[in-house]
Every structure is written in C-alpha cells, then in structure tokens.
Amino acid sequence: MAKVQNPTTTTLGYALFATRWLQAPLYFGLVAAQGVYVYKFFKELWTLILMCVSGHATETYVMLAVLKLVDVVMIANLLIMVIVGGYETFVSRIGLQGHRDQPEWLSHVNSNVLKVKLATAIVGISSVHLLQMFVDVHHTPRHALLWGTVIHMAFIASAAILAYMSGPMVAHTDRGHTDRAPAAPAQDQDHGSRRRTEPESERPPAAVVPPRPDPDADTEARIRAAGFPARKVLEDFDQQHPRGLDREALARLGKAEFVDARRNVVFVGPPGTGKTHLAVALGVRACQAGHRVLFATAAEWAARLAGARAAGRLDAELTALDDHPLLIVDEVGYTPFDAATAGLFFQLVAHRYERASLILTSDRPLGRWDEVFGPSAPAMTDRLAHHAEIVRLDGDSYRTRRATSAWAD
Q1: Range of lowest pLDDT (32-41, 112-121, 221-230, 335-344)
Q2: Average pLDDT of the residues in 163-188
Q3: Above 80 in pLDDT, residue 150?
Q4: Strand partners, 131
Q5: What's CA 206's distance to the chain center, in Å?
Q6: CB 305 within 8 A of CB 344
Q7: SS3 of 243, please?
Q8: CB 229 within 8 A of CB 284
Q9: Which of 110, 159, 166, 260 is deepest in the core (most CB within 10 A)?
Q10: Helix (H) or strand (E) run with residue 86 in it
C-alpha cells in the first residue's frame, strides 16, 4: 500500500520554503547600496577632474584617485554578484535564459561557485587597498603596511582553500546524485513484509525491477537518431586550416549552451573548409548535453517539408519537429530553390524563431541568400540572424589540400 503524505507536514514544509521570500527585501536593499556606490564614484570622478583642471593634481594624487575609482567599481561588481547570484541561488530563478546580456557565471551559479567568486572579488578589492597604501607609502604608518599585507595574504590563503575545497565538494555531490540507488517503493516493502507471513504458494511473483538507464546509452541513442552522415568531434577539427576562424566563438559554442538559449549558428565559407564537420560536432555535443538533434541537407529538408505539405500535414510536421531542440540544415546554397520550396524554408525558420535552435552551413553569406531563396530571403535571414552566432571560415578546401599532398607524395 502506497504511503500517504501527511497534509499538515506538507503544508508546513511549503510554508517554511516560502519564507525564502523574506530575503527578497535584503537584495533590494543591496540595490540601494549599489546606487550609493554609483553616487560615490561620480563624486570622486568629479573631484579628480576639478583637481586636474585647476592644476593642483600631482601624479600621486591622480594615481590614488584612480585606484579609489577602481576600488568603488570592484565593490559594485561584488554587489552585483551577491544581488543577482544570491537571489538566483537562494530565493528564486530570475529566468534570464536566452537573454543576450546574461553573465557567463550565472549559467552555472550555485552556492559553491558564488562563494569562490566572492572570495576572489574580495582578494581583488584587498589588492587595490594594499596598492593604495604602497603608492602613498610616505604617509602610511609602517604598522598599517604590515597589517595590510598580512590581512591581504590571509584573504588569498582563504580564497585558495575555499576554491580547493569547493571542487571536491561539488564532485562528491554529483557522485552522490549519480550513485545513489533509488529508494524501494513503499508497496515493494509491503510485499516484502507479506512474504514473511504468507505461505509460499500464496506469494505473488516477484516484480521485475527494470535496470537503471545508462546515460551513455541514452547519448548514443540520440546520436544514432540524429542521422549524422558521420560522427565528428570538435577535438578532431584542424583549427589551423581555416583562416580567420573565431576560436573563442567555437569554444563557446562547444558548451552547447546556445541550444538552451534557443539561439542559432550559421557556418559560412567555401566548400571544404570544415562547415559540416563543425555542424555535426556541435550536434554531437548537443546530444551529449541531453538534447535531441536532427541532421539533413537542405535538399533533404526541402523534400521532407514538400512531402508534408503535399500530404496536408505541414503544420503537424513543424510542430513534431519541436521535439528536437536542434535541427541542422547542411549545404544551404548548393542548390537554388523555387518560390514554393523557399516558402517552406521560411516557414521552418519562422516557426522555430525564438522557440528552438538551428545550425545551418552555407557557401555564401546571408546577404546573398536571395540567390537561393529569392524574395523570401530577407525575411528569413532577419529571423535567423536575430539570435545567431555567425562563424566565417576562409581558406582552401581541406579535401583538395589533402588530395594534392597525397599526389605529391
């Protein structure tokens, strides 16, 4: 018999959990403190400008004044971390996923990350204070310098220890979540108690416990279902071959966070520069992150959408594709499309706009897509590029280079 939860206990638990909102005014109070630091910053800046214009500012004064401004900014940054990160961690989610200005650290913030970042920010502030003492060393007592250095070293040591301890703590927590076996259902326990009292002939057959799903098996299933022409990984891509490749953008895309943010990726470059390799590699990363992916060439997508339209189920097909957070359209531009087919691609892009992600590869920039899609191109590229990372690959064909090298050998 299943265990019935006590309504009183449940209500009490919800009430206790709701008390987290008592912290909300504290964070708004910190917002007011942030305003105080903004006022202090501009007051110090205005004083520095007046001193420089009047000619009374010495080099030491300017340096100390600038360090004060840096100090104010760093404390303000610390406040932002506490306000946004603390509210997100301890009160409620803010819902910034997909916002173009979302800070990098907020996407993986937790109490441990927040503590480490706060500790490093405090070390930075302490460094500025200590530098101010040494710049104005002639007017700073020796014992103040000594204690300032000791306190600063204590901050560094505590931040290093905290960072060292946070790593094992996170790993231990993740391992505990992964290795912890699910608790036996209450009705299984009831069956077990009955087995001790019932005769052998009256015992029901033992329930078959399904095996726990293997995360690697799930990932492999998603990769196979994606329809990739071959498995490619980012680590095998020759980043030295294309000219002008934005490697920072590629590393950022490799985290697959663009899928959660419902952003698009467009690889543009001549044939043989690795566009399909990168598209497939990002698709594999998305599968590893738990997303369903579907890969096809532009011609294959055209045939699929045209077939759905002919069967009178185009809207149902577009809705069904929503089950795949990432679609990959390869070789855009290799074959021009008629107006009807171009309209189908526009419907695909418009349907997934700010709803799900697309990766496209093309041999021509978006400004020339009218050569492929005709009058539909401007409206389609406007939606596609609004939330997109456009990566340009320049260079000779990698395949031709290898073939030429082999012939030379």
Answers
A1: 112-121
A2: 48
A3: yes
A4: none
A5: 45
A6: yes
A7: strand
A8: no
A9: 159
A10: helix 86-90
Rg (CA), the chain: 30
Q: What is the pLDDT of residue 75?
A: 82
Q: Average per-residue pLDDT in the chain?
A: 79
CA distance 376 to 342: 6
Tell me the per-residue pLDDT of 189-215, one tens digit each, with 9 for 90 and over.
444 444 444 444 444 444 444 444 455
Residue ranges of alpha helices (H) inside 196-243 are 215-226
Could you give the CA distance from residue 229 to residue 280 in angstroms, rounded to a whole number? 8
Residue 50 CA: distances (Å) to CA of 47, 62, 69, 70: 5, 11, 15, 19
Helix axes 377-386, 339-352, angle to 10 degrees: 20
Bridge partners (DSSP) listed for residue 297: 330
Give the side-chain half-sphere CA count within 13 A for 145: 12
State the DSSP code for 229. Answer: S
Residue pair 118/78 in contact by the 8 Å Cβ criterion:
yes
CB 139 within 8 A of CB 64: no
C-alpha–C-alpha distance, residues 145 and 130, integer Å: 8
Q: Is 266:388 a contact under the CB 8 Å cutoff?
A: yes
For residues 288 and 256, the answer to whether their CB atoms sit within 8 Å is: yes
Confidence of residue 188 (pLDDT cuts 50, 70, 90): very low
